[in-house]
């Protein structure tokens, strides 16, 4: 499909340099990006993998004020920590840059002035919150209040973390300054705006062209913004920390981080080109239509990479646009969001001191939040390490190599005549590179990891069914054939697992005493038998050590426990309703349904009109959830409804059914959803 592309540019979202990387970040975009890049390199594609620290913006100045230090101290510390954590995790970036570097400041100024010259930036005088006590205008992150959409009481000045809605800070209810804690006043200030709306038609055409290959979650968010109509967006802020606006009359203003941070991909590529002695080569990756650009990022960054950044590139002219933006959903921890403030987190730099990186790489890969939110559970980490990495993959490699060492002089025995079992095993391996690679090409990394482990499962079964410990005594040639095939499969597994567990694959390469580096191999050759008879092996090693229950209990104990139940808290729960007989419950017809449209009911603050698909019919349901979620966030969700509820009219609008949701308000509100893979319209028991 992409045979016309000479090279692949891959970017991973720039992590913000005011905190350390945790496992949620890895699942969001970094591990999928690295798996993709390692696979493409083994396919001998020309790949450039770009990332770096995002080092401007208000959150960094807030962190500096809290710690009574400077923004420079914050970014230097977290850039170094995250760079080291990424290296230990095996992230194979070609360049890991910083947006505080001169090359980035220069790139951002050039873009700003170019957009200004072309008429894509306009100045506007606007009202903005001002803190009289601190004598400063308040950028969005310096204000907190109640969300105008869902009433969440800790919403930021530009976006609500609870419902995801973007808004103007003046729409915030009960605003307060995070500096003084007081209610801000409103004053006028001048800012430069990017005419994003001027690109509405071009962006719609761009999305329509790419949509057949893009993930549904990415398309839904993007189309929601396009449906609302693109508005001008401020590209400057009243701040001291950042890239000064390079025009007269802009003293005390910096380029807004949302505009310049994404340009960090380009400046990082420029830094790579300079570092490798080819200063103009960055243009091959950003300006040659023969380059395919894949942008990996998390759910909260989608529109900046499908709308805002493409519009910037369109405005500048001559740049390629992202060919795919395979964003993941959120990755949570033990059923709750990662939260450093509550102590509910797992910092990467910390856990890599206790466990090998590949244990996490495989566990996360096998449960990535590709189409819906997923969770990291310590017990799942233990189970996947013990039952899959150790008992299946590691066990097969170890038993094969030690058997050859003990019984065949630590060398590959020759293969004799093949039987049906041998041929079936070889066929499994022969087809594996295309099967696993095809999944990676489709950004289905979870399926690719599980498919690879299935090859190891088949290999273990082959070893068991062939019983070489018996044929060693009764038919040495048959035993040698089994071991020849098993050793070749060990080599194949090293290649197939290399994108997911690169450190383990390198160890297997040493165990097999391979003559050339793993990185020089070709992915498709994982399907062939390439170890010649007589090839001398290295020393066997135990690849994976099992994790004991006591170790996992210690990890769980480190997580902050849920707040203790007080009598008052217990009283806040609704009392249980009277016990009913099963026959009463059986009268309720619960069905899966997909929301295909959602809109507010006129003159109602609480009601949404939903169109749902039951597979065999479509119907309308009215739900009192308008204050808890935005309509555009509902479209495409697979939900559970009461399908046989008597029709009712709410505000004059007929409702045929009821959706299921938690009765709790605020951040505890949640729709009961099902996997998108579950068939629409089937019954729930």
User: What is the CATH architecture assignment of the largest domain?
Assistant: Orthogonal Bundle
Overall mean pLDDT: 91
Q: Biggest sheet, open or closed, and with what strands and sense?
A: 6 strands, antiparallel
Number of helices: 21
Low-confidence stretches: 563-572
Question: Can you tell me the CATH superfamily of the largest domain?
Answer: Isoleucyl-tRNA Synthetase, Domain 1
Give me the oligomer status: single chain
| Overall 3D shape | globular
| Overall structural domain count | 4
Helical content, roughly? 25-40%
Please tell me how large the radius of gyration is: 28 Å
Q: Give me the count of strands.
A: 23
CATH class of the largest domain: Mainly Alpha
Distance between the termini: 43 Å
Q: Remind me, CATH topology of the largest domain?
A: Isoleucyl-tRNA Synthetase, Domain 1
Strand content: 15-25%
Global structural class: alpha+beta
Task: Provide structural commentary.
By secondary structure, the chain is of the alpha+beta class. It has four domains: 7-98 and 262-332, HUPs (Rossmann fold, 3-Layer(aba) Sandwich), CATH 3.40.50; 110-255, Methionyl-trna Synthetase, domain 2 (Beta Complex), CATH 2.170.220.10; 359-527, Orthogonal Bundle (Isoleucyl-tRNA Synthetase, Domain 1); 582-684, Nucleic acid-binding proteins (OB fold (Dihydrolipoamide Acetyltransferase, E2P), Beta Barrel).
């Amino acid at each position: 499909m992409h045979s016309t592309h000479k090279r692949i540019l891959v970017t991973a979202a720039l992590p913000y340099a005011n905190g350390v990387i945790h496992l949620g970040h890895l699942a969001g975009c970094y591990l999928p990006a690295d798996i993709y890049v390692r696979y493409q390199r083994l396919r001998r594609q020309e790949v450039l993998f770009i990332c770096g620290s995002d080092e401007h913006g208000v959150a960094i100045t807030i962190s500096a004020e809290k710690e009574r230090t400077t923004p420079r101290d914050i970014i230097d510390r977290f850039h170094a920590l995250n760079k080291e954590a990424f290296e230990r995790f095996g992230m194979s970036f070609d360049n890991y840059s910083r947006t505080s570097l001169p090359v980035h400041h220069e790139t951002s100024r050039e873009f700003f002035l170019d957009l200004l010259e072309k008429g894509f930036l306009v100045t506007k005088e606007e009202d903005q919150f001002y803190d009289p006590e601190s004598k400063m205008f308040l950028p969005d992150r310096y204000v907190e209040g109640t969300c105008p959409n869902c009433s969440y009481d800790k919403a930021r000045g530009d976006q609500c973390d609870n419902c995801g809605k973007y808004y103007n800070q003046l729409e915030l209810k009960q605003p307060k300054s995070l500096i003084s804690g007081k209610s801000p006043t409103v004053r006028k200030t001048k800012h430069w705006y990017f005419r994003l709306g001027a690109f509405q038609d071009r962006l719609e055409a761009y999305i329509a062209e790419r949509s057949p290959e893009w993930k549904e979650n990415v398309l839904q968010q993007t189309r929601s913004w396009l449906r609302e109509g693109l508005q001008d967006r401020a590209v400057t802020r009243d701040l001291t920390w950042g890239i000064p606006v390079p025009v007269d009359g802009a003293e005390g203003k910096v380029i807004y981080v949302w505009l310049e941070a994404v340009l960090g991909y380009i400046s990082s590529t420029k830094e790579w080109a300079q570092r490798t002695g080819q200063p103009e080569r960055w243009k091959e990756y950003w300006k040659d239509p023969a380059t395919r650009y894949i942008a990996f990022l998390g759910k909260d960054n989608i529109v900046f990479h499908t709308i805002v950044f493409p519009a910037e590139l369109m405005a500048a002219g001559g740049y390629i646009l992202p060919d795919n933006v395979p964003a993941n959903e959120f990755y949570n921890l033990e059923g709750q969001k990662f939260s450093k403030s509550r102590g509910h987190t797992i910092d990467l730099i910390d856990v890599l001191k206790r466990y090998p990186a590949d244990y996490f790489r495989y566990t996360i890969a096998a449960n990535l939040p590709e189409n819906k939110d997923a969770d990291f559970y310590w017990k799942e980490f233990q189970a996947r390490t013990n039952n899959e990495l150790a008992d299946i993959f590691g066990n097969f490699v170890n038993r094969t190599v030690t058997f050859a060492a003990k019984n065949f002089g630590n060398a590959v025995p020759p293969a004799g005549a093949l039987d049906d079992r041998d041929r079936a095993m070889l066929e499994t391996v022969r087809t594996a590179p295309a099967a696993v690679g095809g999944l990676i090409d489709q950004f289905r990394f979870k399926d690719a990891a599980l498919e690879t482990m299935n090859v190891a499962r088949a290999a273990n079964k082959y070893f068991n069914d062939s019983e070489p410990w018996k044929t060693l005594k009764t038919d040495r040639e048959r035993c040698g054939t089994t071991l020849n095939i098993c050793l070749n499969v060990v080599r194949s597994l090293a290649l197939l697992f290399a994108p997911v567990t690169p450190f383990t694959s390198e160890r297997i390469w040493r165990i097999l005493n391979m003559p050339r580096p793993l990185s020089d191999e070709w992915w498709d050759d994982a399907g062939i038998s390439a170890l010649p008879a007589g090839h001398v092996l290295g020393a066997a090693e135990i690849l994976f050590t099992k994790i004991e229950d006591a170790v996992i209990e210690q990890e769980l104990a480190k997580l902050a426990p849920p707040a203790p139940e007080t009598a008052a808290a217990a009283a806040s729960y609704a009392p249980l309703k009277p016990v009913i007989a099963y026959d009463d419950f059986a009268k309720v017809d619960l069905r899966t349904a997909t929301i295909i449209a959602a809109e507010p009911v006129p003159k109602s603050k609480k009601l949404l009109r939903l169109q749902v698909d039951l597979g065999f019919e479509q119907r309308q349901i009215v739900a009192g959830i308008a204050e808890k979620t935005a309509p555009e966030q509902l479209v495409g969700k697979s939900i559970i409804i009461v399908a046989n509820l008597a029709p009712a009219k709410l505000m004059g609008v007929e409702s045929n059914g009821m959706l299921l949701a938690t009765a709790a308000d605020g951040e505890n509100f949640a729709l009961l959803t099902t996997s998108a893979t579950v068939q629409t319209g089937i019954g729930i028991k």
